[in-house]
Input
Amino acid sequence: MGTKIDHAAAGTANYLDERTSIGGFVKFFARKIFPDHWSFMLGEVALYSFVVLLISGVFLTAYFVPSMTPVTYDGSFASMRGVEMSEAFRSTLQTSFDIPGGLLLRQIHHWAALLFTASILVHMARIFFTGAFRKPREINWLVGFTLMIMSLAAGFTGYSLPDDVLSGNGLRIIDGILKSIPIIGAYISFWLFGGEFPGEILIPRMFTAHILIVPGLILGLIALHLFLVFLHKHTQYPGGGRTHKNVVGLPLFPVYTAKAGGFFFVVFGVIAFMAAFFTINPVWNYGPYDPSPVSAGTQPDWYILFIDGALRLMPGELFGIPSEWFVGGYTISWNLLVPGVIMPALLFGFMALYPWFEAWATGDRGEKHVLDRPRNAPVRTGIGVGVITFYLVMVLESMNDIMAMLFQLSLNDITLSLRVAIFVAPVVAFMVTKRLCLGLQRKDRELVLHGNETGRIVRHENGEYIEVHKPLDEQARWIRVSYDDIAPSVVAPQFNDRGVQRKGHKWDKFKHLLSRFYYEDRVSPVTPAELEDAKHHH
Amino acid sequence: MSQSDQRQGKAEPESFEDPGLPYHRPRLADKDPKAAKRAERQVAAMFGISILGTIIALWAYFGLDQSATDTASIMQMNTAIGIGVMLGLFGIGFGAIHWAKTLMRDHDMVEERHELRSSDEARAGAIQNLKDGVEDSGIGATPEGVGRRGLLKGSLITAVLLAPLALLVPQIGNMGGNWDVNALRHTMWKKGTRLARDPEGTLIKASDVTIGSAFHVIPEGLNELEHGKLEEKAKAIVLMVRLDPRDLNLQPGREDWSFDGIIAFSKVCTHVGCPVALYEQQTHHLLCPCHQSTFDVANGAKVIFGPARRPLPQLPIAVDDEGYIIAQSDFDEPVGPSYWDRLKTPGSSPSAEAVGN
Output
């Protein structure tokens, strides 16, 4: 029996290899080494939730009718009977109420979408805080960044498809933001909606974007993303035997085939659990889109909250200066442009280009495959926490009405406080985080130099009491001393001996300022000499 | 060299030395065949749970009443199939991971990395190949350094850049409907249009409107529109309230736009266009639930808080012979969010400019 199967397998392998030279690929891939760490699973969560989205999405398209043609509902959900609605909304109700398991499918799809966007952002934060975006991975950072933007596009187009009151209001807000764009705003809105808002063509258009264009792009970008991961080989956390020139871990086959393959089922299982027990987007309670009604406490899906919060934060008038200008009879709406266009452009632009800012500051040209512990890059970690704080202030503001209800606060006071916080909190968060990192580095030095306190008090013959410290073992010590100690760059003199200005001096000076910002405050790792010295002090 | 080093009589290295891979601690299952057997049974049990989950999902699908469509039955079906799917997936997932963690290799292996940069030889070869290609195409410089076939290059680039226009201009041109952005300036309201309740469409008499009450209003005939109903509704929705006339601070030029304390404003927020649907009777404030722009109805719907900048446009109203409330005209400015030339195009009245500033 066994030999029969072996024979068949060998025959198949031979057949394939003679036609595809797959043997070489298998030899290359099967025992490829991957390092192990829980934080490396965040990107996997994103990948797997995308697969779940594809699977559940394909089945949803079997029932969804992407049409805004008005119909009168006569389906089985009693409280909506006789209500005028679009085909899209009617088919969403039908999927939920008339197809056994249809609601589960919808909820799996929606929860997977929320998990997809969330895991991408958390994965991105992991990459950022550990410095995994450094050479040679800058391009892959950009690929991942584009995937993040695509996930927002996928989420928003999908959220809008059921054509319910909430998503319709979301689209109306998009319409308002588009119209604020100078000169061409109203035309962009007409282009998108096929005329005046809401029109009858947007949902078919968004459907094409949602099921073809955006997922197609995501799929292609994921392929590129993973190809680059294989090409670069995975980064690893610092530890004994791990260098920039090797990768330490376990083989793809069988360990990661089992672990990662199993993890796919776990992620899918978690999504199924959420879908089974937690209702999401009950559009039958909201009703079909109608431009007139809206209720208090309307929030978009979580990944759009920051833009919604920014829109709420920006005042119509500040200290008597209006945020809407009339210049030569034309209208410039800063109250929409700043939160809806300029803020996202700056935020996303900064995120996309960050690897290059840091490369200018360090001036380091080498390949980096060992990750940083976040404390060992205090300024980067501070920037990351600052940006997250900026983001969270906007997210908080998007829930100002809920918070006001929940905590019996004045909605206006919340908004006024957060208007201050949006400027102050990120700076404070940056400074506090940077100091915390420097403090943790000093603690590492302390541990390396003096070891752990044991709580054992010993009295010497001469009457002196000391506490015995247990020195770190060499692995624990290595983790704390093996980081790069980068000093601020030094600028070459502006003029040469003949008094002629050096080419590129201004650029160097800029890079030097950046370098000082990053590395002026630093804690150097303990050197063997210092450790030896410390031993003699006791 | 520091003093301490001299004291030691030997030089300390600049930095610590990599201690190499840590000691590998064997797992229970590595040492004890019984533990390994136990782990194997655990994994098999998890796979068994997965099979059970699939059976539960199928049982729920076939066993529960599929024709029941009340919300409770739908939720029951949802949860039952969901539990089955969840167990079916968890069993496989946790089983495979447990297998990997207890029985598969966990002893680190090392693979060398190679610099991504191609070798100098490969680079030189690549450059040579490109040079040869350029040479073959006839575009490159001659050995004398004179550029050749500049016309060819220029015309090709121009043609390739222009060609997409042939497709894109008509297609993008088609996508905006009639591109009549002037439609944003007008609503269904005109002189004599009666105000009707939203959504029923029943007409409103002035005598129906008691002090302190608020009405969500649409123009008469909106519900009967065959086409473009939502587009018209999106612009024409109005909120009408009645205040004690003594509380109502009439705006200059609009003294006769309201009737005995009954006043009507566009319900489309001047911020991003959400319906300004929440009326607070005590303070006469209108609140937009989307971004909390707050308008003071007693004072020409001026903004008193939030991101909106402009007051809500006012619908001039009157009462006809039969006692129904009617519009005196359309709004005198475009409703809803701002756009570049909302105050510009023909037809914009001077008062709109005044309001804008």
In short: The helical segments of chain B are 3-8, 28-31, 33-63, 71-102, 120-137, 150-175, 229-236, 350-356. Residues 187 and 231 of chain B are 9 Å apart (CA to CA). The first strand of chain B starts at residue 109 and ends at 112.
